[in-house]
Amino acid sequence: MTIDRDPGTIEFKLFQTINEVGPELLNRTTGFGLDALYKASNPNDPVRLAAVTAANVDVARSLKGLPRIFLPHLENQYERLLADLGGTVRYQQGDVFDRLASVMSEVGDVAGVLRASTHINSPDGRNFSNSEKNQALSEVDEAIEELMKMRKDIERL
Description:
Layout: H1 10-21, H2 23-30, H3 34-40, H4 51-63, H5 70-84, H6 96-117, H7 130-155
């Protein structure tokens, strides 16, 4: 029997992950067998993926070189509920093309820092100094933050 899972839901993401990562690695990181994971990926079943298990599934994804998807999904749920109950949310929905421009600007900042840090006339020449490394990492973090906002923008379309 085919089970319909709405794209973007935690059930869809878990089902996709089972196929991408495989049951052996998921069992190592979560302690759950394939049947239990498929059951948790069924939107018609009352069994749900616990937050701790979601983090463990993200570990399996990371070990396979895949991006984390469950912790960002839980963050989205947290922000939606917080907003629904009148709390203050850091994220504000934006236009995806404006957000894309912001992402590109942040990536440009990363490139600028990398170029300047590896220039022959930089403090450590072509080698990164600790301050240059910290500056580059800070720029990367800002780019990632904008990308995560863009992901939320797209998920909420």
